[in-house]
């Protein structure tokens, strides 16, 4: 470290904390070690009794933590990600628009295995709002060898570690099944329980039809919703093993290929996922009408973001797939679906 006059330290890096005492009011650091001195800092330095300060002198090939953090953020960020200026070495990455967070977990693990570099993120597939903090990065020491940062930059060329997928599918077709609803014995509560969630993702229900427990009529309703331009199809109910539940048969009769029936998610065990001429079909079990958060909340944003759902992905959801059914639901800021 080198001793310099405070007035001559502009642009230099503090090598120590600067403490200020105001009798009876305050004692603490007004500047932390590693702070880059700016012109408007000079009066505070002098008021704190620091006519001279010690500054760090970076050697060739060394980076200050702020520059290192910024370069890391720029290296890992993909579409839909922006970042803020460093604060005590930490750079926060935020969602630039509403969408689905995607994390390259193997790449994240590789970067974090490097000495003196850390990147912390939300879990993969988190639904995000614009401006939401999704990741942060920093280096552990005050200075770091530039070659370590360059290694990350070189590895991230051509692909990204963190990005936000936009919700590109917007038109939803709905078939509410069940004799009890079709014949008016009970109220259709789809709009009340799921309509708001669909709108929150920016999607619109372009067609909603009621169908009895009849496979042929369920199939016809699905095809009618498809013809109305639906990009995602949803059915509700009729997926248990009861003899009167024929929704699965109706989906197949419409010509859809069932990718997965049954899921290790609670609530949502009887979930069905299929493709009808490439259009995702979500067969929702009855739990969506009474549980606050279900498999719908895990699958629907992925589908809107254009992801192709494979059975393997649904199977893996069993890790973290048990909803704690909290009195106050804070999803997605909770463990549900974070495996």
Describe the protein:
The protein has helices at 42-47, 65-76, 105-112, 146-156, 179-182, 190-200, 215-227, 247-253, 295-304, 311-316, and strands at 2-5, 13-14, 18-22, 26-31, 52-56, 62-64, 81-83, 91-95, 99-103, 117-121, 127-128, 133-139, 143-145, 162-165, 171-177, 204-211, 232-236, 257-261, 272-276, 279-284. With 339 residues, the protein is α+β, with helices and mostly antiparallel strands. It has three domains: 2-56, Molybdopterin biosynthesis moea protein, domain 2 (Alpha-Beta Complex); 62-164, Aldehyde Oxidoreductase, domain 3 (Alpha-Beta Complex); 171-316, MoaB/Mog-like domain (Molybdenum Cofactor Biosythetic Enzyme, Chain A), CATH 3.40.980.10. The strands form six sheets. A six-stranded mixed beta sheet has the order 16-15-17-20-19-18, sandwiched between helices. It has a four-stranded antiparallel beta sheet with strand order 7-8-12-10. It has a three-stranded antiparallel beta sheet with strand order 1-5-2, with no helix packed on it. The longest helix is centred in the middle third of the chain and has 13 residues, at 215-227. The chain is elongated and about 85 Å long. The two termini are 47 Å apart. 38% of the residues are buried. The model has no long low-confidence stretch (mean pLDDT 93).
